[in-house]
Amino acid sequence: MQYEILIAGFGGQGTLYAGQVLAYGGMDEGKHVTWLPSYGPEMRGGTANCTVVISEDEIGSPTSLHPTAVIAMNLPSLDKYEPMVKSGGWLIVNEDLVNRVPDRKDINIVMVPANTIAREIGNERAANMVLLGALEANLQILPEGAIERSLEANTGEKLKKFVHLNVEALRRGAEYKL
Amino acid sequence: MAKEMIKGNVAVAEAAVRAGLVSYFGYPITPQTELLEYLSARMPELGRAFVQAESELGAINMVYGAACTGLRTMSSSSSPGVSLMTEGISYIYGTEVPAVLVDVMRGGPGLGNIAPSQADYTQIVHGGGHGEYHLIVLAPSSVQEAIDLTGEAFDLAEKYRTLAVILMDGFLGQMMEPCELPPFKEVNMESPDYAVAPKPGRERRFLTSINIDPPAQEKLNIHQMTKWEEITKNEVRYKGYYLEDAEYVVVGFGTCGRIALTAVREAREQGIKVGLLRPVSLSPYPTEVLNELADRAKGFLVVEMNNGQMLDDVVSIVARRAPVHFYGRMGGMVPYPDEIGRAINDMIEAKAANDYVGRDDWLAQMREMIGQGA
Description:
heterodimer; A: 178 residues; alpha/beta; 6 helices; B: 374 residues; Rossmann fold; 44% helix; globular
């Protein structure tokens, strides 16, 4: 089984970091993983996305035209990537930063008020982890708790103080299991 | 050793450090800058030399000087920067001193853009600089392979007293993958016999690429060709996937090679007997295996992120024994597996003649795709 996850949003929303957390989780579980960022002359407030591929086998393409799942952290990302999701796949949407419901009927849609939840638990910047938690709860790409364990193991000393917040955000997001 | 998640650019830098890199000279350029940035901290930390030169011209000539000591030295850049270095590359080759160069290709020509590309295949594999020379060119397609080939590049450069290039693209430079770094090699500070490093009591040595006397130059050219013959015999590297029973063969290197792997697997699932040949050494080219495949394959599809530069090499090796189709993207565009999958299907449906070369049809298809008409 191979999963292709595209995470998209504004620069500064932590899309690249959310992808890395997922990728580290996959690596620690012994999977083949690629993490590919969009890169360009970009800045805070511009668009940013990354694609994470997790597989049991050697990974060919690190990109996909039809990802298994898309996390759309804002409206431009929803507009751009909703049509790409593989039929039968998953679309996880940050409900707080879009003004419409997705149109697709052939995919699973999970609406998560990620900014609201992140604010509730004390830091709006954890919205990315809320959405990642919702993704993982629904797709179960990795064994239970793998991402939390990987966060503990791979976060440097300077940022250790945020692990607790991120774990809580993941758990709150996981409540949005269809 | 535990696996680590590292970006391609940084992985190559650390692999060079572990291979015993003594000195690095470079100038920043996207999408390669992380390599230089990483070494700017790492090399001084280990008491080794890092110099950000005033330009790429400066950097490659510093490498030239350092290479004359025979100790491990390198530079890295991206397409426009490498163009500036080509004079120095020719001088290094002419002088027969060892060095490693990393080229993280980007879209061109001109200043182009910073997106991934393979548009400098011809420049690096078939020359670029003046005079006649053959570089060793290695094209990784994963972060792990980039690490392994970086170590090998230093060994090969030393063994043959030549310049070895790691040719990759912005995709691989920016991508993170789990990988294992090799153990540290001891740094060799003992200059080889030919080098100009000072040693008390030794006769004065002189390293140069100038040979005013044509017969002497020709003698050196013959020597270098002989050396190249040896490299061609010993140093070919490639990876084959599903080739045993393949009726059709996709040929692609680097990032394009691994994207093609996904397309080949999907075609296999549909029952199409297609395989993938991924040249790892672009120079010397895996001619022999391609030659064997040409005797039995019904068709070839070359995929590249350029206008068909390796295509010319494949066409000359296949030598009209099978049609050679082509699919490429240019300008910093990267093909999706679906596009390559379609090209595989098109190849099979076309039933083209053995002397068919796919570039014209591909170009017509590209014009149609972007709406410019024929």
